[in-house]
TrEMBL record, chain A:
One of its GO terms (biological process) is cytochrome complex assembly. Keywords: Cell inner membrane, Cell membrane, Cytochrome c-type biogenesis, Membrane, Transmembrane, Transmembrane helix, Transport. This is Heme exporter protein B. It is a multi-pass membrane protein. It is found in: Cell inner membrane. The chain crosses the membrane at residues 26-45, 57-75, 96-118, 138-157, 164-186, 192-215. Required for the export of heme to the periplasm for the biogenesis of c-type cytochromes.
UniProtKB/TrEMBL annotation, chain B:
One of its GO terms (biological process) is cytochrome complex assembly. The gene is ccmA. PROSITE patterns: ABC_TRANSPORTER_2. GO terms for molecular function: ATP binding; ATP hydrolysis activity; transmembrane transporter activity. This is Heme ABC exporter ATP-binding protein CcmA. Keywords: ATP-binding, Cytochrome c-type biogenesis, Membrane, Nucleotide-binding, Translocase, Transport. Pfam families: ABC_tran (PF00005). Coiled coil: none annotated. SUPFAM superfamilies: P-loop containing nucleoside triphosphate hydrolases. Transmembrane segments: none annotated. It comes from the Bacteria. Residues 6-189 form the ABC transporter domain.
Length: 220, 192
């Protein structure tokens, strides 16, 4: 029974968050990501070696910013609609709902971001070898970003100015991912990938419980 | 329908630093209904949320036996989706088709986005969702809001059928609703 319910949830979440979905517009974070990557060379000037050296870090920062964009639509609308109440009455734990939402949120921006990193790396003049590390880093790092995003969205749901607060809260939480993810791009920094993955796993393990508790608290 | 039971003992409810009511006791078994009456702001909705288990009582205990179905002012349907697809989510979730759609006069509205529906139409849609949930305990918070006279009669019939089938229903409403054999609790009597 739980399986059927979770499938129904995932289907709804994906319809809402994926390309063309009502709350997603997964296209927007994507365009934003490419726009940041495009602006950076304008800001620092056409110094090819400098761009190639810093480009990987720029992609990571752009990924973080893109992951912040949809935060205010991740949890709050369902609280307002009374969806969480209806799920609770049916005996479905908030933890399950949040876990499914992390999956859907990641699918809506993780893989598209990895695709968009290809044109972005061309704009920044990143070498193919570095690009491989960037892509691997995004693969293991973006699930962690998704977990942070949903967790913070649940914490700030229902608060006045929640959207701005959410952005502010995500940044420090994302520091370990950014340090290890971007750090893996330095020469001999491949272990950074493993550490990024470890941080992601920890965040994924925490997110459903922290998010579920936050939703219950927000219900009051 | 599975057997069900709902009871509250010496219930008190606080909202902010104000106690809305205290000392409320009620007990309902399968086939029984109860109307909670009272003016706006007296705590009907808060009581319904307590009975549903969505809030903690300030004092007292609640015992529930059976799944709860709740209708409140939010229909819990995606506003941008056509009604048919918004209900389809709950059909998939509950694993049961919303067969009452035709009876509730919603069949022609399947293609209309939920946000364009009137208050009464949204109420009917929530009723269709509730019936398909097949929960034995019904908590209906102002189910008659926005309904025309025909629909009010229909709601009365649907609640009576639910009780006849062994379910129980608590209806909070400031409007008159005919529930044969129902207890009636005036929340004013318990105001703190």
């Amino acid at each position: 029974m739980t399986g059927r319910r979770l499938l129904a949830l995932l289907r709804r979440d994906l319809a809402l968050l994926l390309l063309g979905g009502r709350r997603g517009g997964a296209m927007l974070p994507l365009l934003f990501f490419v726009a940041v990557a495009m602006l950076f060379p304008f800001a620092v000037g056409p110094d090819a070696p400098l761009l190639a050296r810093t480009g990987g870090g720029v992609i990571w920062v752009a990924a973080l910013l893109a992951a912040i964009l949809p935060l205010d639509r991740l949890v709050e609308p369902d609280l307002e609609l009374g969806m969480f109440d209806q799920w609770a009455l049916r005996g479905l734990a908030e933890e399950w709902v949040i876990a499914i939402r992390v999956v859907a949120h990641w699918l809506s921006f993780g893989p598209p971001l990895m695709l968009a990193a290809l044109p972005a790396s061309a704009l920044l003049g990143i070498a193919a070898e570095t690009l491989r590390t960037v892509e691997l880093g995004l693969l293991v790092g973006t699930p962690g970003l998704a977990a942070i995003g949903v967790m913070v969205a649940a914490l700030t749901a229902g608060l006045r100015g929640g959207a701005a607060l959410a952005g502010l809260l995500v940044v420090p939480l994302a520091v370990p991912l950014l340090v290890f993810g971007a750090g893996s791009l330095a020469p001999g920094g491949e272990t950074g990938l493993a550490l990024t993955a470890a941080v992601s796993l920890v965040l994924l393990a925490i997110a459903p419980f922290a998010g579920g508790a936050a939703v219950r608290a927000a219900r009051g | 329908m599975e057997s069900c039971r709902l009871s509250a003992t010496e219930l008190a409810c606080r909202r902010g630093d104000r106690v809305l009511f205290r000392g409320l006791t009620l007990a309902l078994g399968g086939g029984e209904a109860c109307q909670i009456a009272g003016a706006n702001g007296i705590g009907k909705s808060s009581l319904m949320r307590l009975l549903a288990g969505l809030g903690e009582p300030f004092a007292g205990t609640i015992a529930r036996d059976g799944e709860v179905g709740l209708i409140d002012e939010r229909p819990a349907l995606d506003p941008h989706l056509p009604l048919g697809r918004a209900l389809a989510f709950w059909e998939r979730f509950d694993g049961r088709a919303a067969e009452a759609v035709g009876r509730l006069g919603l069949a022609a509205l399947a293609e209309v986005p939920v946000r364009f529906l009137s208050t009464g139409q949204k109420k009917r849609a929530a009723l269709a969702r509730l019936i398909a949930q097949a929960a034995p305990i019904w908590l209906l918070d102002e189910p008659l809001n926005g309904l025309d006279t025909d629909a009010v009669a229909l709601v009365e019939t649907i609640v009576a059928e639910h009780c006849a089938a062994g379910g129980l229903a608590v209806v909070a409403s400031h409007q008159a609703i005919a529930l044969p054999g129902a207890q009636r609790i005036a929340l004013r009597d318990y105001a703190a």
